[in-house]
Automatic annotation (TrEMBL):
Organism: Taiwanofungus camphoratus
Pfam family, one: 1-cysPrx_C
PROSITE patterns: THIOREDOXIN_2 (PS51352)
UniProt name for this protein: 1-Cys peroxiredoxin
Gene Ontology biological-process entries: cell redox homeostasis
């Protein structure tokens, strides 16, 4: 099994999706990507999650992020379920139109490759007793490097605002020598990266504040 640790290359694969056949790395191209799994089609928490992801499409696009879902069902189910998601989402959340691809993984090949099956959760099984995929998230950068992994239990829907917040933090950290503090939101002060000397910090970040704890240096970032 390839490594799925932060910093390793996201395993490549070919798959059928609701938007046609893809080669994963080619599909990512020069974008960032979010690959997220959910337990199964026609399940309630998943329906709310996919509707929310569809509604956040402009937020992902703004950040040059492509989104792709996966569950251990076939294309026929995915296509029928997308209609439900659009209908439910539009009624309950506001206009919803799922346009991102969903991978058909009925044989659990890609879920296995990405370690998305929780063999231990007895409540997370389909009608045949096979494990559903769990709720994982992989944030992958344009070099195909895994930058974030998350695993949530089947019964807990994810917070996609948090996932966008992490993308903002990662993209900022790639561009500037900064890190982001607890509960940081775009526009808040950031922390100067520990690898930056105090002298460099004064040049790079003229508004830097040196705190009593000499290892904490914060600065606004007017970008
Ligand atoms: C859900 O999406 O609602 C769900 C799926 C599998 C197990 C528990 C909840």
């Amino acid at each position: 099994m390839p490594s799925l640790r932060l910093g390793s290359i996201a395993p490549n694969f070919e798959a059928e999706t609701t938007q046609g056949h893809i080669k994963f790395h080619d599909w990512i191209g020069d974008s960032w990507a979010i690959l997220f799994s959910h337990p199964g089609d026609f399940t309630p928490v998943c329906t709310t999650e996919l509707a929310e992801v569809a509604r956040k499409a402009p937020e992902f696009a703004k950040r040059n992020v492509k989104v792709i879902g996966i569950s251990a069902n076939d294309l026929n189910d995915h296509e029928k379920w997308v209609q439900d998601i659009n209908e439910y989402g539009t009624k309950s959340l506001g206009p919803t139109n799922v346009q991102f691809p969903i991978i058909a993984d009925g044989n659990r090949k890609i879920s296995t490759l990405y370690d998305m099956l929780d063999e231990q959760d007895a409540t997370n099984r389909d009608a045949k007793g096979l494990p559903f995929t769990i709720r994982t998230v992989f944030v992958i950068d344009p070099k195909k490097v895994i930058r974030l992994t998350l695993s949530y239990p089947a019964a807990t829907g994810r917070n996609f605002d948090e996932i966008l917040r992490v993308v903002d933090s990662l993209q900022l950290g790639d561009k500037y020598r900064v890190t982001t503090p607890v509960n940081w939101q775009k526009g808040d002060d950031v922390i100067v990266h520990p690898s930056v000397s105090n002298e460099e910090a004064k040049t790079l970040f003229p508004e830097v504040t040196f705190h009593k704890q000499s290892y904490i240096r914060t600065t606004p970032l007017n970008v």
